[in-house]
Amino acid sequence: MSDTPLDSFSQLQLAEPLSRAVADMGYTAMTPIQAQAIPVVLQGRDVMGAAQTGTGKTAAFSLPLLQRMLKHENASTSPARHPVRALVLLPTRELADQVAQAVKSYAKHTNLRSAVVFGGMDMKPQTLELKKGVEILVATPGRLLDHIEAKNAVLNQVEYVVLDEADRMLDIGFLPDLQRILSYLPKQRTTLLFSATFSPEIKRLASSYLQDPVTIEVARSNATASTVEQHFYSVNADDKRRALHQVLKSRGMKQAFVFVNSKLGCARLARSLEKEGLKTTALHGDKSQDERLKALESFKKGEVDLLVCTDVAARGLDIKDVPAVFNFDVPFNAEDYVHRIGRTGRAGASGLAVSFVAGSDARLVADIEKLIKTKIELEAMEFEEDIPKIREQGRINDGRRAWGGDDPRDVLDTPRPAPRPQRHSAPRDPFFDQPYQAPAATEAPTWEASAKHATVRGISANIKPKRKVAALFKAVAPAVTA
DNA sequence: AAAAAAC
Predict the structure, then answer these.
(1) Spacing of A261 CA from B1 C1' in Å
(2) What is the DSSP letter of A354?
(3) Which of A70, A218, A250, A254 is deepest in the core (most CB within 10 A)?
(4) pLDDT for A16-37, tens place per residue?
(5) Are the C-beta atoms of residues A306 and A279 closer than 8 Å to each other?
């Protein structure tokens, strides 16, 4: 190989059917991960590849694999005319679907066949395709094991394995299935791991699955794209929905991902945002696969503006031109923050990532700060509808609690009165079923009340417009962790 | 604290 780095696909001298496919897609220049990974994979080496979200990892492994499969005919004397030679594993069904489509388009001028199998869909059509024979199989782990055990998929000829979102595939929830799948594969093979995030522990674990790997790290692993503008607003849990409305309006944003930590919370939020007049759909793992694919499709087509979702949508989904990502809840894992906000600002586009931070999220925000090695400034959210009121009363403090935390009684462990039993059948969840209504001016909390709240936890009642996470954490942590 | 992945 020459010492000058390659930067265009034409320099790779890919087989004609592949360079034609690349040209069809309008690609000319390679991204850094592609420029570095493709030549290494072409040499047949194992790879652990880390690159920021949205920088073309799929092409970085698909193209050289296809190239090698074209150049090196399967020499085995297997009775199967089309044994599975390459296996690509992914942690979610939607992602498997997406990667399968990409592989298909790169392979469209070749004779290589590909198929995708994932759960939630009828086994039969997948079985038929597998029986016809495919060289490239894209799959999620559970359904693949079903097919292996039903002898629909025979993997003893596999030459290449790709674990996309590798750190997720190696985490505790997936590892048992993954190990079982790998036990069906030949020991002698090429293994490729790709992700935007690799923790040191995962790197160590990963290396036990690789033979003499080449580590490729484009930018720092765990880095967020520099084109994404990130904000963290300290918002009372009850104010998150109107904060969402306000940011969308003030930034003139139309489409956005809205991430929520639980499936139930996801369904509820989607429902109330819909009632509040936003075109919304929900994507989470309690929906049928049919509904999941439909939700994603309608978001892609722009039929809905908001995709309210759980972390099922955090990784890999490549939807063009989504301008914003909201973390309605701060994610439990800092890695997921990197992946979530990676849904915007893809392929060099600009993007906005807004996270709503409640008081009990201080630790999570500190974790994110550490992972992305970036100082996070917590910002106060000023609501437009409150500004006249604030002026009129001649105060800057609008009476909201100094940190957007849970009820202070929770923190202080004060017993609360039991909720009144409902006499009549009430809506299942009054809070989420009601559209947000601005409180009447007379109901505005007094300054005294706010000062009392604030002194209770030792934070100045005068909210500074920007506060550091560290300060917040220091103030809140003892009470929360106690 | 949850989600994801098989029926």
Answers:
(1) 9
(2) E
(3) A218
(4) 999 999 999 999 999 999 999 9
(5) yes
